[in-house]
Each structure stands twice: as structure tokens, then as C-alpha cells.
Amino acid sequence: MRDIVILGSTGSIGRQALDIVDMHPGRFRVTGLTAHSNDLLFVEQVKKYRPLMAGLTGKSISPPSGTDFCQWHFGPSALEVASSQVPCDDVLVAVVGMIGLGSVLNARKTGKRVLLANKEALVAGGQLVKDLCPDDPQNPALLPVDSEHSAIYQCLMGAKAKCFRRIILTASGGPFMAWSADRIAHATLDEALSHPTWRMGEKITIDSASMFNKALEIIEAKWLFDATPGQIQVLVHPSSIVHSMVEFADGALLAQMGLPDMRVPIAFAMAYPERITTGVRPMAPEDFSNLRFEKPDFERFPALRLAYEALSAGGAACCVLNAANEIAVNGYLHHAIRFGQIARVVEETLAALGPMPADTLEAILDADRRSREKSREIINQISKEDI
User: Fold this and answer.
1) What is the rounded CA–CA span in Å between residue 100 and residue 79?
2) Bridge-partner residues for 38, per DSSP?
3) Of 56, 154, 192, 225, which one has the fewest beta carbons inside 10 Å?
4) Confidence of residue 111 (pLDDT cuts 50, 70, 90)
């Protein structure tokens, strides 16, 4: 039996991880749960799974009756307690935002295996995370939960280090792949939130529409697989059956395929190195009928260009990109800017701040803070221009 702490248990990834726990009684024991503010669902989860610790990061409530079997914590410090002090084998980091970086570092410093479903940790603090994750294929310190990176990890299993020629990240393309640049620029919120394949939270759905999710995944792949920017490519694959591919030095190409259901990569990480059932139906012949691929358009989707530029710039540039995108997406969700102005906010923030170090957690947090401040200034300026 493996003991697991789930950070972000009321979100999409957290709920599906608990589905896997339910499917395999006796295999997993939940020792810690945290959520942000969905206290009604969270209390239900706490009563069902009876963890040693429960934490709400976004609000405080009176510990509900019938939950005296666990310790309650409130505020951001709940994540620190859950990731470093609760006894467990694995910590599933499924929280959104920079707050996930501290959780990953805390978990690794206390010897826990990290199941990573948080993009920001590697994008902003890749070197810090990498330094705490020794390269041991038999006992990995970190396993990716994103479907694309899980696919690459599976393709590389058993391969010798650095024997690949390139990594090919697939992208569904989101809802705007056939749209003109002008139409994309003026996309409504309802249109941007209508993803054709996946069901996700608001922020990641907007990121998928703008392809900033793929931009972040390019950066993550650099750290996860020790790849150069030139070894990481993106192909648009609307049906989301091929989750990613690896081309090796001898010309062989391995692809990981499956129905677009996050329970598969979640279960892979939770049960590694074993394979367990997930409740996902077997693939049918018709599922293979549309394996279409095409190159992404960097003009209509500048997020991809910005990712490669940030990687080339080094330092805290990737941290700046991530923070600026978070603020820009929030601005779009609150109707402060248009969809097409998300990338503008990111690009102008990168240009305004210039080189900054990223060699310590303090430096990264400072770069993140400065990026958010500058992004808000740029959004305010854009809002004035549009009046």
C-alpha cells in the first residue's frame, strides 16, 4: 500500500486521482488532502478518506464535526505542512500557480516522490527542482502527470540517457485552429472556454486556446528530459489520440497513444512501476481513423515563439513568461483585455524586465512578483488605449 497526499483534491486532477483510489481499495491510503476554497466538496472528501491532515488554503472554517480524526490547517502554510510533514510515499501536486513550486521543493527535501500536475514548478524553478531529483529510473523522484510528458516518459522507459533525437509534443490545437488571426484576437470568453477534446479548469482551458499551455510544456520538457530547445517540437493533432512521440538517434519513432482521459496518466504516476485499471474503455477501430498532424502556426499562436525565446534567454525569463501569462489570463477572464492581447502582455513584460537571475527560490519569487506587477501595469495601459 502506498500513502499519498493530494494537494488540490477538489480540482479536476485531484478528483480523478481520488477516483483511482476508489477503484483500487487496499492499494492507496490518503494521508493528506488540501483544497483552495471549495469547502463543501472538501469536507465530503475528508470524511470519506479520513486523512491525517486536511488543509484549506483559501479560506478558514470551523473544523466540521466528525472530523476529529485529522488535524486541520488553514492558509498557504497548509501546503507546507501537507507536502513536508504528513507521512506519505507520494505527494500529488495538483494545485495551480506558483504556489506549487514550494510544495514540490518541500516534498523532495523530505524524501517524498512527487507526482507533478503543476506546470509552474518546472517552468519557473526548473533548475531548483532538478537539483533535488536524482536521476534514478528504478526509483524516480518525480513523475509527470501531464498527458504529454507522461507519454514522453513512457516512450523513454528503458532507453539510455540522451539517445533521442527529438521530442514531439502533440497539441489538440484548441478551439481556434481553423480561425483567422483577427478572429482569434477578438474571441469571446465562451468561445475560448469551449475546448473540443478535454474538460479542464478555466485557466488551463484558456491556455489551451492560446497555446500557452503548450508553451509551458515546451519549457517543462527541457527540464524533465534534459532536452535542448532544438530537440523539442510541437505538432497539432486535433483528435488527441497520440499524446506525444519520441524520435531516437537511429530514426525509430515511438508514440504513446490512448483515449484523451486524464485518469490514464494519473494512474500511471500513482501506481508506477505497475499498471492498474482506470475505468477507461478500450480503444475501438474508429478511434484510429483520424490520426492527422500539422505544424503549428507561430504567427497566429505567438505563445510558442515566446517559449523558445524565453528558453534561449535563460535566467528568470521562463518565470516571467509564466507569471505574465497568469496575470494576462486573469485579465481576459475579467474582461480587462481581449484574447489576442494575452500574448502582447507576456511579450511586453519580458521586454520590460530584461535579464534576471533564477538561481535561488528567493530570486525566482522576486522575479515572479516583479513580473506580476509589470503585467498589471501593461494591462492597465491597454485598458486605457481601448477606451
Assistant:
1) 9
2) none
3) 154
4) very high
Helix axes 361-385, 341-353, angle to 10 degrees: 130
Between CA 343 and CA 145 the distance in angstroms is 26
Q: What angle do CA 198, 220, 16 make, to 5 degrees?
A: 35
Residue 204 Cα distances to 181, 220, 227, 318, 383, angstroms: 21, 15, 24, 17, 24
Q: Which of 141, 52, 54, 58 is nearest to 97 (CA)?
A: 58
Q: Domains in the chain, ordered, with CATH?
A: 2-144 (3.40.50.720), 162-258+292-385 (1.10.1740.10)
Whether residue 273 has a cis bond before it, omega within 30° of 0: yes
Residues pairing with 143 in the sheet: 115
Cross-strand partners of 257: 242
Is-above-0.70 flag for pTM? yes
251 exposure class (CB count in 10 Å sphere: 0-12, 13-18, 19+): exposed
Backbone CA torsion sign across 311, 315, 320, 322:
positive
Residue 124 to residues 79, 102, 256, 310, 321, Cα–Cα distance (Å)? 18, 11, 27, 11, 9
What is the distance of C-alpha 373 from the center of its chain? 23
pLDDT in tens, 195-243: 666 566 788 899 999 999 999 999 999 999 999 999 999 999 999 999 9
